[in-house]
Amino acid sequence: MKLKLFTYNVIDTPIHRLSGLTKLICFLLLTFAVMYSYDIRFILAVMVFSFIILRVSKIKFSQIKIMIIYVAIFLVTNFILTFLFSPEYGVEIYGTRHDILKVFGRYNLTLEQLLYQTTKVFKYGSVIPFGIIFLLTTDPSEFAASLNGVGVPYKVAYAVSLTLRYFPDIQRDYQNISQAQQARGLEMSKKAKFMNRFKNALLIIVPLIFSTLERIEYISNAMDLRGFGKLKSRTWYSKKSMSRGDYIAISVSLFVFAVSVLISVFINKSRFFNPFV
Amino acid sequence: MKKYFEVSTKTIVATGLGAAIFTLLFMYVKIPSPVPETSFQTAYGVSSFFATLFGPIAGGLIAFIGHAISDAVQYGSPWWSWVIASGVASFIFGFAYKNTKVEEGEFKGKDILTFNIIQIIGNVIAWLVVAPILDIVIYREPVNLVFTQGAIAAVMNSISAGVLGTLLLLAYSATRTKKGSLTKK
Q1: CATH 1.10.3130.10 fits B2-29+40-175, yes or no
Q2: Which chain B positions have a beta carbon within 8 Å of A219's beta carbon?
Q3: How far is B110 from chain A (nearest CA, A)?
Q4: What are the pLDDT digits (tens) for B54-76?
Q5: ipTM score
């Protein structure tokens, strides 16, 4: 369990130089653009774009290997489940029927279903690089400032920054407690009896929570003493000012977002691209 | 109504640290269930516990932030419909705040019942209504698939929140000084 939340490296690339606020806005615009559209041509174009950005920001494959494995497992499971539960969903969406293959019973593979499911795989696949880029190129201490910048109340932004700050501490506490309990013979795996598993999980969670409650007390007293939350707004030490690159990045993302909506409204007349009519 | 939505510094800090625990448990501490390929998320036990102690705002944000971060770290991008549903569930758990006597050191029959009724209502609304509907609206997932997944999630998460939340609150109430525990001689 050696996981760091954000493996943020300080490298000098155009993407790293953007302010955190810009990256958050671009991330949101681009993910919504991809989430909204079911046009495979548009999605493939965005996917190519996302891989170019991934290249530019010099993210190494080793940094994102585990994520890719998880995503692949998720996509395959989702693909199979979708077919098992709704083999006719494609026909329903596109309104036509082109059978390719009879599998068994009510399970017929149709061209429509294949297009729907392939689109879905690429759709989810092309959102992932943006998330990865955002996570790996944003300084965690700048993150709260960016959230506040897009209109999240600063107290909530501060809570997020506390989460990122204290995650490593809590992870270390968890490891210590878990090893101490295992040394005393605690069994967490499938070998333990079912009802005992809850009890065993509690033997780790209870000490973790009680030490955290104590810590909450300390931190909130310290913050109160420094006058946290007395004013309506606050400034951030790590906030970067906007530069020309930031405006370019936001314009590009806005353009992609607009294209997604415009294609759906004017060309496809729905969220789906229908080549069958 | 106002008592639920007060935000003090302590609420903020509890949210931050609670979300850190939520993230950790959500990723690593799952209890394997008898049904293969599914597991109980201990994280919902913790979010129900924090929601009962610190109110709906803290509860909702803990689950929302925790779920979003762990999704982002594992998959690169959060699955928004379920992240929002997590937030909604734990927000509703927060209505147990100040409705039980856990802060006064008593957490017995009636309090346990109140907590669990609220907890089950929260899970049902979140996983049978919010998550499937958002899945359909945002992601256009097939209807029967999302409702089946939602039903499984509602049952599993009610069990985790019920069992772990109740036991955590029992443990917590034992550490509080009971009201009227001092008598004058």
Answers
A1: no
A2: 13, 17
A3: 23
A4: 999 999 999 999 999 888 888 87
A5: 0.88
